[in-house]
Model the fold of this input.
Amino acid sequence: MFLKRSIRINFLIQLIFASMSLIFIFSSFLYLYIENSIYDEKREELQQYAKNIANNQSLFHVDSDTPDALLGIEVEVIQIKRLNQDIDLYESTKNKQTYLTLIYPFNFDELSYLKITKKITSTKLLLSKILRYIFIINIVGFILVIIYAITLSKMLISPIQTISLRLSNMNEHLMRPIKVEELPQEFEQLGSTINHLISRIQNFVKYQKELFIGTAHELKTPLAVIKLKNQVTLIKKRTPEEYIEALNVTNKTIDEMNIIVSNILNIGRQEGAQLEKPIEVDVIALLREKANDFVLLAKNEGKNLHIHFEPDGFMATIQVSLLNQIVQNFLQNALKFTLKDRAVTLKSSQNEFGLLIEVIDEGCGIDESVDLFAPFKRQGNKSGVGLGLFLAKSAADALGAKISVKNRTDGVDGTVSSLELNSKLSCILPKS
Done:
């Protein structure tokens, strides 16, 4: 039932030890209180007898509600050579009988003392019986504590076992999110985190499958073209110029294949970047630096890049290379599809989720029914492999960010590419 370094067994040991310590301490204090109370009562009783005798009063003057109050009492006068004004009380055993003896000053001139002895065997038996009952109650309490600890630990560990069982039965084909509403409140955050991880795994598996299928398709087509061109070339003799032209076509197709392979290698590099240690950086400063690089590129293509950043600073703990990859892809696509003398806008603002980064272009727009984040999905008449947005989506998932590409809604043709960085690990810098 228990494993090495088990949370449950550690919890059980601590709960049982703490409960038994509490029961033992409480029982000990209870017994000591009862014993002291009884002995204090006997002491006061014997002192009252001694006071009555010392004041030349009869023993029968003792106030008592019980007629047998004086039974078992022996009184004698003893001589002590040294003067001792303290009252001495001690317990003794004789013939299996227990006695309580009080030495009380009687006559200081004669150095005489009263020795009053009372048999307390019945009281001692009563205390032994009380101690025995307390011991039995402790044993019963110990058993109940063990049963309670096992039941409580089982109840507390049950949600974890349920989650573990669900996860152990999962594979890439049977991944189902955990029903967070069925978990105790303390485990809701854990369930949500696991569901987020499951979602990321599902997306990863989905995109990996699409990537493999798309890669095979994209590489198969140029290979078929190369083979066909070579077959046509070998059908009959040709002039050197025609052979050169055929080879140039083949080289062009090979270049296209090299681009595909390079982009696939970028995917591997990106997965490595996801393992980089996040650092705290000013996202706005990074955006300004990236914008400065693309301003010159936009001017060179006869286009304008407008910049508007709010707030002045936004600190976040992220992998910088992944953020750069997303923003760079947004800007490259925007400049690619924006016509000459048109503008691209890079802006940032704050919302309830965190920092919103937007790249707005004046291009041809997109078909929103197509999943542009799938590998090898292309829109428009521009060249490209179709892996840029796939890489951007993977990077955004690794950052825990939201990414989207939508058409503009302000009446102008073009798209809005947005990235929302979560503010949980971020803070706003004050304006200078």
Observations:
- Residues 7-54 form the longest helix (48 residues).
